[in-house]
C-alpha cells in the first residue's frame, strides 16, 4: 500500500468524529464547502479554520500524518498562492521584488484563496479518514433516497460505489504483489528511459486485468447464488440512526455558520 | 551462496497509524548449498523475511547479506538487478504473474530481462519446461488456456529459466492436488541437488519440511522462535504446538511408540513400508523376550 497518500484512506479510531452518523458528516462537509466561499473577513476565516483544525484535533489522527499525506496537494496550494500574489493588482504597493510590484490586495487574495483550498482539502479528507467506505455509501444511498421516487437507481449506484471502494485495497495489494513478482524477474519499474518504463507496465497491467475480471465474475456468481436481486424490500444490517451527538454537532455547526455570516464584511 | 541476516528488523509503513513491525531481531546464517525450510503461523513474517533475499524489501534496521551482496538501510546503491539474477523467487500463487501471449514468451521474459542471449534462452525454455513436467509442444499455447496446476508449472518454469543460484519458494504448492504437490516438491529437491542451489522454502507442510529440508527456521510474531535440524526441531512438540504448529505425523507416531511401548526407532527418512516392517519386527522381538 502507498503510505504517502492520505486522501481516501480510513484510519480506525474512537473519536466523536468517527462515531458521528456518516450522513451528518457528509451534510456538514457539503455546507462547509459552500460556506468557505462566503468567508471574506479575518474573523470569518479564523472561525472556519478553528472549526476544521479543531475537528482534526478531535479525531486524534496525528496532524503530521495528515500534513505529510497531503504532500501532492501542498504543491497546488503554494502554486495558487504565488499565482495570486503576482497577478493581482489591488490595494497599495507594499514592496517590489526585482522591480516587480507586490500589492497588499494581492497578498490578501493569495492567502485567502490558498487558505480556502487548504480548508476544503482538509475537511473532505477528514471524511474519508474517519468513515469507512461502506458507511459513506450507505449515507449517500440514504441521502439520495428521495430520488428513488424519480426512478433514479439509487441503490444500484450505491452498490456500484461500495463494490468499487471495497476492491481498491485489494487491487492495490494485487498491484504490489505482481510488481514484486515481475521485479524479481528483472523488470525495472523505477529507472531507465521512459520508453522502457512504459513497456514495463504491460507485465503489470495484464495480470491485474485478468484477476480483476476473474474477481468480478466470481463476485457476480456468488451474489446470484445467494439470491441477490437489487434494492426492493432489502433490509440493512447496520441501520443509520441519528443520535444526540449528531444533533449537538449539527447545532454547533449552525452556530459556526451564523458566526461566519455575522463576521462577513 | 551464503545467506545471512544480522539483527534484521522490518517495519511496514513506518511513522503512520498503520505502522507495523513485521520482523524484528532476526539473525541467522544459511550456508551455501543448504535446503532451508521456514515455518511459522500465518502472519509470522515469513513472506516479509524472504522478500529481503532479492532486495524487494530493504531492512529498516540491520543487514542482510546474500553472497557478496549486502542490503542495509543506509547504504545507497546495491546492484539489485545483479542480485535478482542470482536469486529466483517463486511467490505464493505464481500463476498470477503470467502475462504473455504464449508460454514460450512468458518463460523467456525473465532471462531476456537479464540480457541472456537468444540461443541460450531457447535452451533454457526447453530445459525448464521439461523440469516442471510439461511437454514442448505446448510452447505456442496461451498460458491463460491452461488448468490452474499447469499455469503454476509454467510460472515456476519462468523463474527456473533465470537459472538462479538461490531459489526462494513461498508456499509453492499451496492449492495444488496432493500428487501435483509431491511432483513439484520432488522437482525442486532434484534441482537443488543437481545444480547445487541454495534453497529457501516457506511452507505450511511440516511433512515437506521434514522430507526435504536440512535446516529449519521457525518464526513467530516476526521473531526467530527456533532453529535447527528438522529432527531436532520436531522433537519439541510442546514448543511447536504453543505457536500453532504441528509435528509431522511420522515423528508423532515414533514419539508415541517410544513413550508408550518403549520402542525406539530413529527416523532416517524411511518409507511407510520400511517403518511398518521395522515396528512389526520390534513388536514381535519385544513379545518373544
Ligand atoms: N504490505 C504490507 N503492508 C503492511 N503490513 C503488511 C504488509 N505485508 C504484510 N504485512 C503484515 O506483516 C505481517 C507479516 O506478514 P507476512 O510476512 O506476509 O507473514 P506470513 O508470510 O508469515 O504469513 C502480517 O501481520 C501482515 O499483516
Ligand atoms: Mg506468506
TrEMBL record, chain A:
- Which keywords describe this protein according to UniProt? Cell membrane, Membrane, Transmembrane, Transmembrane helix, Transport
Q: What is this protein called?
A: Energy-coupling factor transporter transmembrane protein EcfT
Any idea which GO molecular function terms this record carries?
A: transmembrane transporter activity
- Write out the GO cellular component annotations: plasma membrane
The record describes its quaternary structure and partners as:
Forms a stable energy-coupling factor (ECF) transporter complex composed of 2 membrane-embedded substrate-binding proteins (S component), 2 ATP-binding proteins (A component) and 2 transmembrane proteins (T component).
Q: Where in the cell is it found?
A: Cell membrane
Task: Write one Pfam family the protein is assigned to.
Answer: CbiQ
Please indicate which superkingdom the organism of origin belongs to.
Bacteria
Q: What does this protein do?
A: Transmembrane (T) component of an energy-coupling factor (ECF) ABC-transporter complex. Unlike classic ABC transporters this ECF transporter provides the energy necessary to transport a number of different substrates.
Family to which the UniProt record says this protein belongs: Belongs to the energy-coupling factor EcfT family.
CDD domains attached here? EcfT (cd16914)
Task: Supply the InterPro entries for this chain.
Answer: ABC/ECF_trnsptr_transmembrane, EcfT
Q: Which organism is it from?
A: Pontibacillus yanchengensis Y32
Q: Which gene encodes it?
A: ecfT
TM regions (residue ranges): 28-58, 70-87, 93-111, 118-140, 247-263
Topology term for the membrane? Multi-pass membrane protein
Automatic annotation (TrEMBL), chain B:
Q: Which InterPro entries does the annotation name?
A: AAA+_ATPase, ABC_transporter-like_ATP-bd, ABC_transporter-like_CS, ABC_transpr_CbiO/EcfA_su, ECF_ABC_transporter_ATP-bd, EcfA2, P-loop_NTPase
Listed EC numbers: 7.-.-.-
Alphabetized UniProt keyword annotations: ATP-binding, Cell membrane, Membrane, Nucleotide-binding, Translocase, Transport
CDD domains the UniProt entry points to? ABC_cobalt_CbiO_domain1
> What's the chief localization of this chain?
membrane
Assembly notes: Forms a stable energy-coupling factor (ECF) transporter complex composed of 2 membrane-embedded substrate-binding proteins (S component), 2 ATP-binding proteins (A component) and 2 transmembrane proteins (T component).
Compartmental location: Cell membrane
| PANTHER family referenced in this protein's UniProt entry, alphabetically | ENERGY-COUPLING FACTOR TRANSPORTER ATP-BINDING PROTEIN ECFA2, HEAVY METAL TRANSPORTER
Root EC class? translocase
Top-level division of the source organism's lineage: Bacteria
Family per UniProt?
Belongs to the ABC transporter superfamily. Energy-coupling factor EcfA family.
**What is the recorded name of this protein?**
Energy-coupling factor transporter ATP-binding protein EcfA2
Report the function annotation for this chain.
Answer: ATP-binding (A) component of a common energy-coupling factor (ECF) ABC-transporter complex.
